[in-house]
């Protein structure tokens, strides 16, 4: 009798593991594991715990402008065009769940604050620009997305993504956030306004 119960218990355990492994397999094959991970991370972002902050003045470095980008339609853009503006740069990729997680928040921020003074430069690091284009279209995002034309300057290098930079009109990198963060907050919006007015002080 004990052996029979033990056998039934093992069979039940094997079935449960089989179902679990099958679900995992389906998630990976369809690519939905990225969406699941991103969804969980989005819930975490809503807590507001992870927020970007302005660097101390002594840590702010000059922002290089001597590089080129391309729009998703293939038009070349010189980063020099953004000189004198507040620039929000985000390095991301479609295969990166944290990048996907913070995008709705960034898009809401873009819709609220983008102007002639505050520019958004979303840089896709996907090997195939079409992947980024399809993703952006599917999600309905309207912020400008670019790909790199050659290498980015060392000042924008990062071993992990997402990474976000904010450049002041005076040409200083005043924010460098490695990893996902909440940006569509009253505090960060106020910070962007202060940066665009060259009135932010961080000592």
Can you walk me through this structure?
- With 203 residues, the protein is of the alpha+beta class.
- 40% of the residues lie in helices and 20% in strands.
- It has 5 helices and 8 strands.
- The protein has helices spanning 2-30, 32-45, 97-113, 129-139, 186-196; strands spanning 61-62, 68-71, 76-78, 86-92, 118-124, 145-149, 163-167, 172-178.
- Strands 1-8-7-4-5-6-2-3 form an 8-stranded mixed sheet, covered by helices on one side.
- α3 (97-113) links the parallel β4 (86-92) and β5.
- α2 (32-45) crosses α3 (97-113).
- It is globular.
> Order of strands across the widest beta sheet?
1-8-7-4-5-6-2-3
Distance between the termini: 75 Å
Order of helices and strands: HHEEEEHEHEEEH
How many whole angstroms does the radius of gyration measure?
Answer: 22 Å
Helix content: 40-55%
* Structure annotation, total helices: 5
Strands, count? 8
Low-confidence stretches: 16-28
If you average the pLDDT, what whole number results? 81
Please indicate the percent range of residues in DSSP E strands (runs of 2 or more). 15-25%
Structural class: alpha+beta
**Main beta sheet strand tally, sense and closure:** 8 strands, mixed
Q: Can you tell me the overall shape?
A: globular
